[in-house]
Amino acid sequence: IIGGDKSIRGDWPWQVSLWLKSQSKGNHPLCGATLINSCWILTAAHCFKRFGKDPSRYLVRLGDYHTEERDDFERSLSPERIVIHRRYHSQGWEYDIALLRLRGTEGNCVAFNPHTNAACLPAPGNKSAKRPSACVITGWGITDSEYSRTLLQAWVPLLPSWKCKKRYGERYTSRMLCAGSLSDRRRVDSCQGDSGGPLVCQGEGGRWALTGVISWGHGCGDPSFPGVYTRVSRFLRWIDQVINSPPMI
Ligand code: 4AZ
User: Fold this and answer.
1) N or C: which end of the chain has fewer CB within 10 A?
2) Which domain holds residue 190?
3) Which residues are near ligand 1 (CB < 6 Å)?
4) CATH number, domain with residue 76
5) Per-residue pLDDT reduced to its tens digit, 93-109
6) What exactly does this protein do (predicted)?
7) Could you read off the pLDDT of 159-191 as tens digits, one per residue?
């Protein structure tokens, strides 16, 4: 996260970190992710580009705050299944969305507590609802120099799509969201290591909804190249289908 602040422990209880397991080199943080119910975690498809989709190679850590200290509520689990959107192609950035299933029975995989809880999905079908102004990105990714050890947060404004269209051309599509700093005085952006993590926006009644998945962009914190996010509202049916269909054996 560029231009962010240290978060407060427990403020973003849906934040998950995704790790690559390695016995020789120690586990290695790869991506952010978001808990969306007791059994499912939403992240970016490109997180699996390098090391594949064998769930046994990964760990997810819930309730984490400081990556190198043991927090009272943190828990590491291995995912049971990884589902990558079938239209995702590793050469591009379209359909950059994936779901991870945790082990457990029917809606009963992890217990929620003040440090582990699910984010809401956006309400379906209210396209006309006014654009939320307050959105927050969170992650342990690159700051100005290195990965952060504590969970960082940053407020980012959602930008009109034409701003990303203008910069990125055809690569920016209606299944993406554009967000970032408006002025060059304060650079605010997501960056490498944050991807897969949440962009949440606060709606009526103070309810936070998972509006975007941190996905890509040209560099980080460059005011002329905003960050690009997977537009979660376009994938509600896909999410529902994956979660509610029996696993293929
Ligand atoms: C990345 O490499 C990445 N500035 C994530 C987000 C952004 C750029 C790169 C957006 O995962």
Assistant:
1) C
2) 1-248
3) 189-192, 194-195, 214, 216-217, 220, 227
4) 2.40.10.10
5) 999 999 999 998 877 89
6) Plays a role in neuronal plasticity and the proteolytic action may subserve structural reorganizations associated with learning and memory operations.
7) 999 999 999 999 999 999 999 986 666 789 999
